Amino acid sequence: MGATLADFGKDPLGITIVKAVFLFLFLSLGVVFGVWFERKLISRMQNRVGPNRAGPFGLLQSVADAIKMGLKEDLFPNTVDKVLYLLAPVIMVVPAFVAFSIVPFGPKVWMFGHETPLQLVDLPVAVLFMLAMGAVSVYGVVLAGWSSRSPYALLGGLRSAAQVVSYEIAMGLSFVAVFLFAGTLSTSEIVNAQTSLWYGILLLPSFVVYVVCMFGEAARVPFDLPEGEGELVGGFQTEYSSSLKFALIMMGEYLHTFTASGIAVTLFMGGWRAPFPISLWAGANEGWWPMLWFFIKFVLTFCFIIWVRASLPRVRYDQLMSLGWKVLIPVNLGWILLVAAVRTITQSPGAVSIALGVVIAVGVLTIWMRFDTVGQRRREARKAQVDAEFEELGEEPTAGGFPVPPLDLPHYRGR
């Protein structure tokens, strides 16, 4: 039986501690295993072997890396703000741990003679709590860049702040359709509302938008602009040596990826509920079995993130921001209006509701067609401007050098 908000807050202290310790071990060991799994999976996609020296199948490679980073000398650049420099990695890690506490692993089960939900905590505004934790963690990135007193690190931190602001808006809007259909912001009750049909199928546009925003929020390829090696050396973490602080930064990034995967499974993929045809079995969603279904969905979502990393290149920063503000947010707003109209019609059918839904749908379609026409005109004008600039440059080989001017070195001449 699925848990509800009324089932939380009744656990004995011992069971709460057991669930908190399990969550901590799950995420900590998940980071260690996830690094190895990502390296092995990408290596297979690229026809390589991957880690294969430390332990069987290279399983101990991540453990060796963690020990190495923990034992390396901890260097402090002379100009850094030491307090914020040390505090930034912690701010990145702690909210990621806390955000995962609202993810349900399963229904109510018997544990030490007490019936308890397989979820640490739930709130009437649980999803908003997750978004708030993601917003807090970006302070760690910004402080890491600012406290390093390096232009590369500062630019990486500012990029992260702008990116999170842009994609959190679109991500929050992608949840609105789920809230309208589920009638709640509680993660456990949203899972209960997906008994007959997953929201990833029913609300496919919201799911697609969330998947795109998931990469932007977690700063994963192709949206890992805050640490762009090509132009920012290492981004916000440039001045962090390969020590324990760097390990915390890497852990924070992985934990945000885990949180994004857990939220995707919870809100759009039925949570811990068994997929079809396993759901035909009467006991598929009872006892401890749902924990297995959740873990399988979670791993498959993580594999998809790795697949995207191995397949797509990093986008330009202007493309990243244009996608967030000019595409995802307008599409989300139009989709929310359509979903709201459908919900109004289904809950209170009548001529007024139907007319309102038709008007909203026609208005959204008109706005979208207008937006697409204006965008096409701007692209054509931009292309004409670029063509004209290239014609003015002529065949000068060093013309238009940006951002680094051409180097006039003797041994480069004649090549």
Automatic annotation (TrEMBL):
Biological process per Gene Ontology, one example term: aerobic respiration
Keywords, sorted A to Z: Cell membrane, Membrane, NAD, Quinone, Translocase, Transmembrane, Transmembrane helix, Ubiquinone
Bilayer topology: Multi-pass membrane protein
Broad EC category: translocase
Renumbered residue ranges of the record's region Disordered: 393-415
Name of one Pfam family that matches: NADHdh
Reactions mediated catalytically: a quinone + NADH + 5 H(+)(in) = a quinol + NAD(+) + 4 H(+)(out)
Record's GO cellular component terms: plasma membrane
PANTHER family: NADH DEHYDROGENASE SUBUNIT 1 (PTHR11432), NADH-UBIQUINONE OXIDOREDUCTASE CHAIN 1 (PTHR11432:SF3)
Subunit structure and binding partners: NDH-1 is composed of 14 different subunits. Subunits NuoA, H, J, K, L, M, N constitute the membrane sector of the complex.
Similarity annotation: Belongs to the complex I subunit 1 family.
Record-given protein name: NADH-quinone oxidoreductase subunit H
Organismal lineage: Bacteria, Bacillati, Actinomycetota, Actinomycetes, Streptosporangiales
Gene: nuoH
